[in-house]
Amino acid sequence: MVAFIPFLVLIALLVCCISVFGNATLDGASQMSLFVASGVCVWVGWCQGRLKWERLDEEITKKVAACTSSIVILLLIGAIGGTWMVSGIVPTMIYYGLQILSPQWFLVTTCVICAMVSLLIGSSWTTIATVGVALLGIGNAMGFHEGWTAGAIISGAYFGDKLSPLSDTTVLASSVVGTPLFTHIKYMLYTTVPAFATAAVIFLIAGLTMNIAGEGDVEAFRTGLCNTFNISLWLLLVPVATGVMIARRWPALVVLFLATIIAAIVALVAQQEAVRQIADADEGMGMLTLYKGVMKVCYDATNLSTGVPQLDQLVATRGMAGMMPTIWLIISAQVFAGALTATGQLRDIMRYVLKLVKGTATLVASTVGCAIFLNITSADQFLSIILSSSIFKETYEKKGYESRLLSRSCEDGGTVTSVLVPWNTCGMTQSTVLGVATLTYLPYCFFNLLSPLVSIFVALIGWKIKKNK
């Protein structure tokens, strides 16, 4: 039981961080908590006489080095998030998506729109804080219960976040386990699509059977998009080209880099006014001004004035700089995992876990349950994914399962359930942003509730689950 001491210390520190820093815990408090927990881990190992400094250095170096490619991918994600927004690609998708709203189809449409936006930008938080807030207002105007609308928004946003190659949780889950990014995404389709389809059907039936009458005014939103960007269907050729590259199984680094470069060129051609505004140039469209603007789009946080506050939040981007807290968290977590491995405490924990594992279904159920438990105790989805993958990685390898099964199980349990915990960073953020209590929208987040169950069911029937030869 001594092996659990570092985890208990980590949980206690994170509880303090959440109460003190709230939503800002990822800015550094969580990372420092991991370093302190790593120190406790080393101290426990030293007291047990199991610590060898050379092995500690070796394990930490090895685990941090294993995340090198994921760190580069995260930086490219920051760049592509900025270029796809400023180039008008994402605004075009939102503009045309908002035109299909109607009371009867509102819930399912809301779910699909949020899924599309989140899939494109790779962020459930941004989707909910922008498009989600607008859709919640429209839903309230139509007479929908706020729990239903918030549930549709969150279900769609987390579906897109889970499958987007731009999502930091998706990149994190694949990288810490060692699964190629697009292999991980493709394998998640077997559990994610059935869960999302079921949720969409529920929202569809609910919308058609509810006695709702009213209209939501989205004209200001569309007008703001048109006034800020040159909206054109031609811009959608960029995501189409990106999809082709993904379908042809090009390396993730290559796809993200090319998608960033292409979008940057499109921004220079189609959105010169927006680029000039980001460059903070009072006048002129010289080459140096455009160069400064497009470079800031890639690496720095950007803001554009559209005249609509909610829209201003949507078109704001973080760039590469916005990825640094996540990268810092990954490195800190890998230090903690290295300390657990070097001192043998991770192996001790696995002995307890292995007693519960009898087959594929119990292994997946244990992984999913562990991720949910860590969401509740550590109050952060990133830590849930990192720690659950570290705990179970050796077991999956010993039993001959492919790494993609572990990475998928961690996401099925970790990513989607974080928003259902009131004191989790995700739960606190979304309830604050939407103005809807976590326990109010929880019963209506059908995708988030179904994903862990579908994951276990798929493992139970053995669908698409293979062992390494």
Task: Supply database-style keywords.
469 residues; 73% helix; globular; mainly alpha
Q: Can you walk me through this structure?
A:
The chain has 469 residues and is an all-alpha fold. 73% of the residues lie in helices and 0% in strands. The protein has 24 helices and no strands. The protein has helices spanning 5-21, 29-47, 53-65, 68-86, 89-97, 106-121, 124-142, 146-163, 168-177, 181-209, 219-228, 237-247, 252-270, 272-279, 287-299, 309-315, 324-342, 345-354, 360-377, 381-398, 403-414, 425-434, 438-441, 446-461. Helix 2 runs parallel beside helix 17, helix 6 runs antiparallel to helix 7 (124-142) and helix 9 runs antiparallel to helix 21. The mean pLDDT is 84.
How would you summarize what this structure contains?
The protein is mainly alpha-helical. It is 73% helix and 0% strand.
**Order of H and E elements:** HHHHHHHHHHHHHHHHHHHHHHHH
**Could you say which overall geometry the principal axes of the C-alpha atoms support?**
globular
Biggest sheet features? none
Number of helices, counting only DSSP H or I runs of 4 residues or more: 24
Percent range for β-strand residues: under 5%
Q: Work out the helicity level.
A: over 70%
